[in-house]
Design brief:
Distance between the termini: 59 Å
Strand content: 15-25%
Radius of gyration: 23 Å
Strand order of the largest sheet: 1-7-8-9
Number of domains: 3
Largest sheet: 4 strands, antiparallel
Structural class: alpha+beta
Shape: globular
Number of strands: 17
Order of helices and strands: EEHHHHHHHHHEEEHEEEEEEEEHEEEE
Length: 442
């Protein structure tokens, strides 16, 4: 029943700040913003709990199963504890594929078909089957009381989910746990059917979530949007475009008075960001007009008054001094030993596997994939001497997506713990960093 109630990197960038030709104002004072990623938010709330080691990179890189989706459904409904305590000999025929605690979960679902988890036919549940974006958005919608066959049909679940504010992982294919974190942030804000309250508010009212910890999920959001002409760029949580001003200098806004009327400042004391962005890149300045403003890599952030709806980018190029803030998903970084190497947007090293001998085909699976999490960027934006055409998206056997560079699937190394680490170089004499020409640095 529905519950109511960096090592420093020289990362090439297409949007380097241009020094002002005008006299700069006295430097504004700066402070760190409170910024949390989707993974941090759902981890602190207990919505995503990880394995025995927590929300590690290895866990986040794993594919998400049907059983996990069912547990998350129960967690969002406030029924997980009840399900774990439930015991019955009447269970799905394949229940023994999972642990005893998870067998209790399956027995509870079988005993409560009104929850919608009736199995896959022939008495089975298929707990280890992988979950697609469409299937998981269906889970989130049903956790909020919306029903397939009444409110939506599975064939149009993605479009219906988008109309309800769920869209950020829609193009991911089969999901991994990192995608689930993003979807959970979206889903927790979903309004419960027939109520003017969200899933997270219901869980707070049931005292299943601490209201203080829930503050992060209600914070303003900075996201990424993509267009065919501009590539990937920063927007706010509603999709409104953010801009930078080339006459600003690092952590100093030179946009005052009429300028500030035309280019309203963006500010939030707390932010939530997707996994692709780095919390350390955001800050807060005290402007000389007494207001606060959020910065990204030292650039004060603005809206454009003539953008009237989400997706508008009419401020791009105004006066040849106002631009969207582009986000490169792949860049290069200078390494003292290997020279220029491929890294992700945060500066984390990317690797290739010499046993991937067929173009655009990964043979790294199972334990290999746990140790070498795959890299995927939905929209490839590059700078410097990298070319977008050299990057492609491949579909792995399990249905998840992976980015390849000149035919070589790209990976992380689980033992690299911070940007700049290259501890995966030469592991097993089959794993190597790459330079911008696609040569592995043996």
């Amino acid at each position: 029943m529905l519950m109511k109630k960096k090592w420093k990197m020289l990362i090439l960038s297409a949007f380097m700040l241009i020094s002002s030709a005008l006299p700069a104002l006295a430097a504004d004072s700066t402070a760190a913003a409170t910024v949390k990623s989707d993974v941090q938010i759902v981890g602190e709330l207990g919505l995503l709990q990880g394995d025995g080691s927590g929300l590690t990179e290895a866990y986040l890189a794993k594919t998400t199963t049907r059983l996990q989706a069912a547990i998350l459904f129960l967690r969002l409904k406030g029924l997980e504890t009840t399900a774990l305590a439930y015991s019955s000999n009447d269970n799905f025929t394949d229940a023994k594929l999972v642990s005893s605690g998870n067998q209790n979960i399956l027995a509870y679902l079988k005993a409560n078909p009104e929850l919608g988890w009736t199995g896959t036919g022939n008495g089975a549940f298929d707990p280890k089957a992988l979950i697609t974006a469409a299937q998981y958005y269906k889970v989130l919608l049903e956790a909020a009381g919306y029903k397939q066959g009444t409110d939506f049909e599975f064939a149009n679940v993605l479009s219906y989910a988008k109309s309800m504010g769920l869209s950020k992982v829609a193009n991911m294919g089969s999901l991994r746990n990192r995608n689930i974190a993003t979807a959970l942030v979206e889903g927790s804000k979903l309004k419960v059917k027939g109520m003017d309250t969200s899933i997270i508010d219901v869980l707070i009212s049931l005292k299943m979530i601490d209201s203080d910890k829930a503050a992060g999920i209600k914070a303003a959001r900075i996201d990424l949007a993509t267009s065919a002409t501009l590539g990937t760029y920063l927007v706010d949580g509603k999709g409104n475009t953010l801009y930078y001003f080339t006459k600003d200098t690092a952590n100093v806004s030179n946009c005052m008075d009429t300028c500030a009327t035309n280019w309203p400042i963006f500010y939030s004391a707390s932010l939530q960001i997707p996994a692709e962005l780095n919390a350390a890149d955001f800050g807060t300045i005290d402007r000389t007009d007494g207001k606060k403003q959020t910065t990204y890599k030292g650039m004060p952030l603005y809206y454009w008054a003539k953008d009237t709806k989400p997706g508008d980018t009419t401020g791009q190029g105004v006066g040849n001094v106002w631009y969207v803030i582009k986000h490169d998903s792949i860049a290069t970084a200078k390494n003292d030993t290997y020279g220029e190497i491929l890294v992700d947007a945060k500066g984390n090293t990317l690797y290739m596997y010499t046993k991937d001998t067929t173009k655009d085909v990964s043979v790294c699976k199972g334990t290999c994939e746990t140790n070498w999490p795959i890299f995927y960027a939905g929209d490839i934006q590059v700078s410097g001497n990298l070319k977008s055409a050299d990057f492609t998206t491949i579909i792995r056997e399990d249905g998840t997506k992976q980015t390849s560079f000149k035919g070589m699937p790209l990976y992380y190394w689980v033992k690299d713990t911070k940007p700049g680490d290259t501890t995966g170089q030469g592991v097993g004499k089959v794993w190597y960093v790459l330079n911008p020409t696609g040569v592995n640095m043996k």
